[in-house]
From TrEMBL, chain A:
CDD domains: ABC_cobalt_CbiO_domain1. PANTHER family: ENERGY-COUPLING FACTOR TRANSPORTER ATP-BINDING PROTEIN ECFA2, HEAVY METAL TRANSPORTER. SMART domains: AAA. GO terms for molecular function: ATP binding; ATP hydrolysis activity; ATPase-coupled transmembrane transporter activity. One of its GO terms (cellular component) is ATP-binding cassette (ABC) transporter complex. Residues 3-244 form the ABC transporter domain. Keywords: ATP-binding, Cell membrane, Membrane, Nucleotide-binding, Translocase, Transport. Its main location: membrane. Forms a stable energy-coupling factor (ECF) transporter complex composed of 2 membrane-embedded substrate-binding proteins (S component), 2 ATP-binding proteins (A component) and 2 transmembrane proteins (T component). Probably part of an ABC transporter complex. Responsible for energy coupling to the transport system. ATP-binding (A) component of a common energy-coupling factor (ECF) ABC-transporter complex. This is Energy-coupling factor transporter ATP-binding protein EcfA2.
Automatic annotation (TrEMBL), chain C:
Coiled coil: none annotated. Pfam families: CbiQ. GO terms for molecular function: transmembrane transporter activity. It comes from [Clostridium] ultunense Esp. This is Energy-coupling factor transporter transmembrane protein EcfT. Keywords: Cell membrane, Membrane, Transmembrane, Transmembrane helix, Transport. It is found in: Cell membrane. HAMAP family: EcfT (MF_01461). Forms a stable energy-coupling factor (ECF) transporter complex composed of 2 membrane-embedded substrate-binding proteins (S component), 2 ATP-binding proteins (A component) and 2 transmembrane proteins (T component). Its main location: membrane. One of its GO terms (cellular component) is plasma membrane. It is a multi-pass membrane protein. InterPro entries: ABC/ECF_trnsptr_transmembrane (IPR003339), ECF_transporter_component (IPR051611), EcfT (IPR024919). The chain crosses the membrane at residues 26-58, 70-88, 109-129, 246-265.
Length: 286, 277, 268
């Protein structure tokens, strides 16, 4: 396992009237090859949790172990941790600062103290991974690109660190459907490249399409944790936590409840279509 | 015509991009007529010209060619510009960047203060506006401590307090979480149904368009589709090619139909599809 | 870390002090500060102390809260104290190596430190009991007679309001950009001064770009809300002097007068 959280607690403004427990005894294992969806409504502790995974925040108590090392111990090298665990914040394009796309993406690798050739290779590879054309875009200013392109430059900036784990906080927020599909499509490729991914998202449709495991946060605790299909079976429990399920899953449940013998745990329109075609043909023949 | 809120006549809007000599056309020869009391949704992906169109509707931008009329006032008429902005209020995407004051009620008062409304009436308008968006209990709060949806409702109240007949919302939900989006959509519906405001809602979320009276779809500065939600969404292929979504059940119905099943093309909700099957 | 700054923070309340007209409060504070500089001996400080304690009690702001405002300025107070102790000549009390400490020095140091403490608690009491908005309103109104000589009173007040509105937003943003760059291996904490300054580029550039973007959007939003400068503008809460305002200013004038007279007569 690549990241292990042991009894993490985090308290904001301890010993003041504004004291607030943001993380409440969180234990979680993240394995190599996981594609985790982290869901929960705003204020449930998702953002606080992900910032613990690369040492940007330190737990009030508990341990964060990355690749066998307790990252908050004295001899831990935080730079190395942040290289291994890449974190893409919400609206990452708001952090672009260099004159050219190339320089901006090279910022991370340069901070790692890599040689010029290696930096160059990494920038090129990172741009390939997010489908930005190296030759035409490398010398452009990041600020004159489209919204979706800017965001991909920002993601490439983290990918150029060659992280083992990539965490993305709402990577599609504010994008239109086309921009969203571009980013989500890239995530699939990255996953196939062998990167472990943690996706924080509010869109159940996106989560259902992509991830294989879901962690549900509620009031600083892990409320549910299971395979994607298992989680979306529990529509009522999710509703109690203020969360929904994909519209298509909802439809299949509704249709089944009307006495139709179908498998209702579908996650995508494709799956629903196959299931319904089978069912309707069977029914037609009978 | 008495019943017309906004009329856009052969409007073209060009702008020059930095470092380029050529003029870029953001809006190309568009004609739209919006009725009083209508709930209009303008769909389109980023860069389709929908935000430019919004800014043309209350004189924040002036057309390069053609005319825009708000309540029969031409937006090019400098004497009428404040009248026009009072009539057609505008809510923007980022709630943080449209709240001016450090206390909710002070912010809501900002518009009427600019209009020169007497203090007592401002007080009434502020209370009324906050009541409509259901934020009365937060009137003494600092806006930066509110949630995204709450901030956006404060921004809407700020516009309502100016007593506009028409409210233009430019992607008001793009930066909100699902809870915030629902809050805003409910507020918009209430403004239209109960307060009888003409609504022009610009968005790229298709699920927010389902309840509109009429949808316009924009692409490259032109209106490429127009019709009721049912008429628009039944053209699944076309909508998807424009880089937009359709509801998952609509897509499923479309797919089943393609496989030869007898399913209507204009399914919008779960209930409708369950019934159809 | 950036959120710890409490200067200028408003402590909401509904007390006599909170309800005073901001103009009156600003004038009172100006008189209070002036009176501080008219005090040359220790005894009148008792009056000042009584005035401050009385005001705090009236305003119901927790005492701790007022003291918190002193914290970030402790260094300045400390430096003032040390300089006064070391540089005042007079009767030597004791010597530590090359440093001599005199009786006059010690008394002067305590005197100056107290003056600073009173100054800070007095002004922070003003900001604690006056919402930023009414504070700017007060300033705008007090400055408006100078409009005739070309002072843009309304614009200044508007700028202050917007600055106050955006300070928390920008602090939050600073925090976020810092973290995002740290996630890419940026280092804001080590190295010499030149390197540190250089390392700030990845923080400052996005911060400025975002601030400009915000300013741009805010300007459009304000225009859409019919903002066209200060003329013909009305206010939700028009400032009107009430009986208690008159009462407070009379009381303060007596206090102020007493301190001034005392300066020249040596009454206490």
């Amino acid at each position: 396992m690549i990241i292990k959280l042991e009894n993490i607690n985090y308290v904001y403004n301890p010993n003041t009237p504004f004291e607030k427990k943001a993380l409440d005894n969180i234990s979680l294992n993240i394995n190599e090859g996981d594609f985790i969806g982290l869901i929960g409504h705003t204020g449930s502790g998702k953002s606080t949790l992900v910032q613990h995974l690369n040492g940007l925040m330190k737990p009030t108590s508990g341990k964060v172990i990355v690749d066998g090392v307790d990252i908050n111990s004295k001899d831990a090298n935080l730079k190395e941790v942040r290289q291994k665990v890449g974190l893409v914040f919400q609206y990452p394009e708001h952090q672009l600062f260099e004159e050219t796309v190339y320089k901006d993406i090279a910022f991370g690798p340069k901070n790692l103290g890599l040689e010029r050739d290696e930096v160059h290779r990494r920038v090129k590879k990172a741009m390939e991974l997010v489908e930005l054309d190296f030759e035409t875009l490398k010398d452009r200013s990041p600020f004159e690109l489209s919204g979706g392109q800017k965001r991909r430059v920002a993601i490439a900036g983290v990918l150029a660190m060659k992280p083992k784990v990539l965490i993305l906080d709402e990577p599609t927020a504010g994008l239109d459907p086309r921009g969203r599909d571009e980013i989500l499509g890239r995530l699939e490729t990255l996953y196939q490249e062998g990167i472990t991914i943690i996706l924080v998202s509010h869109s159940m449709e996106d989560i259902a399409k992509l991830v294989n495991r879901i962690v549900v946060m509620h009031r600083g605790k892990i409320a549910m944790e299971d395979k994607t299909r298992e989680i979306f079976k529990e529509a009522e429990k999710l509703a109690e936590l203020g969360l929904g399920i994909p519209q298509i899953t909802s439809f299949m449940k509704e249709y089944k409840s009307k006495g139709n013998q179908i498998e209702d745990t579908v996650l995508t329109v494709e799956e629903a279509k196959d299931e319904l075609i089978n069912y309707l043909r069977r029914k037609g023949n009978a | 015509m008495v019943d017309e809120m906004i009329r856009i006549e052969n409007v073209t809007y060009e702008y020059s991009s930095i470092g380029e000599d050529s003029q870029l056309m953001a809006i190309k020869d568009v004609n739209i007529s919006i009725d009083k009391g209508e709930y209009l949704v303008i769909l389109g992906h980023n860069g389709s010209g929908k935000s430019t169109l919004a800014k043309l509707m209350n004189g924040l931008l002036l057309p390069t060619r053609g005319n825009v009329y708000v309540n029969n006032m031409n937006t090019k008429d400098e004497d009428k510009i404040w009248n026009i902005r009072e009539t057609a209020g505008m809510v923007f995407q980022n709630p943080d960047n449209q709240i001016v004051a450090t206390i909710v009620e002070e912010d809501v008062a900002f518009g009427p203060e600019n209009q020169g409304v007497p203090p007592l009436e401002i007080r009434e308008r502020v209370d009324e506006a906050l009541r409509i968006v259901e934020m009365e209990e937060y009137k003494k709060h600092a806006p930066h401590l509110l949630s995204g949806g709450q901030k956006q409702r404060v921004a809407i109240a700020g516009i309502l307090a100016m007593k506009p007949e028409c409210i233009i919302l430019d992607e008001p939900t793009a930066m909100l979480d699902p809870t915030g989006r629902i809050e805003i959509i409910n507020t918009i519906r209430k403004l239209n149904k109960e307060e009888k405001k003409t609504i022009i809602h610009i968005t790229h979320f298709m699920d927010e368009a389902v309840e509109a009276d009429r949808i316009l779809v924009m692409e490259q500065g032109e209106i490429v589709m127009e019709g009721s939600p049912r008429e628009i969404f039944s053209q699944v292929e076309k909508v998807k090619n424009l880089g937009l979504d359709v509801p998952q059940v609509t897509e499923l119905a479309y797919e089943l139909r393609r496989e030869g099943f007898n399913v209507p093309v204009d399914i919008l909700t779960i209930e409708e599809l369950v019934k159809a099957l | 870390m950036l959120k710890d700054i409490t200067i200028g923070q408003y402590f909401p309340g509904d007390t006599f002090v909170h309800k005073l007209d901001p103009r009156i409060k600003i004038i009172i504070i100006i008189m209070f500060i002036t009176s501080l500089f008219f005090i040359k001996t220790f005894p009148p400080y008792l009056l000042i102390l009584a005035f401050i304690l009385f005001s705090i009690w009236l305003s119901k702001v927790p005492f701790k809260y007022v003291l918190k405002g002193l914290k970030p300025l402790m260094i300045i107070i400390g430096i003032t104290f040390v300089i006064n102790v070391l540089l005042t000549k007079g009767e030597v009390l004791f010597e530590i190596g090359p440093l001599t400490i005199t009786k006059e020095g010690l008394s002067q140091a305590v005197f100056m430190a107290l003056r600073l403490i009173f100054l800070i608690t007095g002004t922070s009491l003003l900001t604690l009991t006056t919402s930023p908005i009414s504070l700017t309103d007060g300033i705008e109104k007090l400055l408006s007679p100078f409009k005739r000589v070309g002072l843009p009173a309304h614009e200044l007040a508007m700028m202050m309001t917007i600055a106050l509105r955006f300070i928390p937003t920008l602090l939050e943003e600073t925090d976020k950009i810092m973290k995002a760059q740290m996630a890419r291996g940026a280092d804001f904490e080590s190295g010499n001064i030149i390197n540190r300054a250089k390392n700030l580029v990845p923080l400052l550039v996005p911060l400025f770009i975002n601030a400009f973007r915000r300013a741009d959007e805010l300007a459009i939003a304000m225009e859409a809300r019919c903002y066209r400068g200060g003329e013909h503008r009305t206010r939700l809460n028009e400032l009107k002097l009430k009986k208690q305002d008159i009462f407070a200013i009379i009381l303060m004038s007596i206090f102020f007068g007493f301190i001034i007279i005392n300066r020249y007569t040596g009454f206490i």
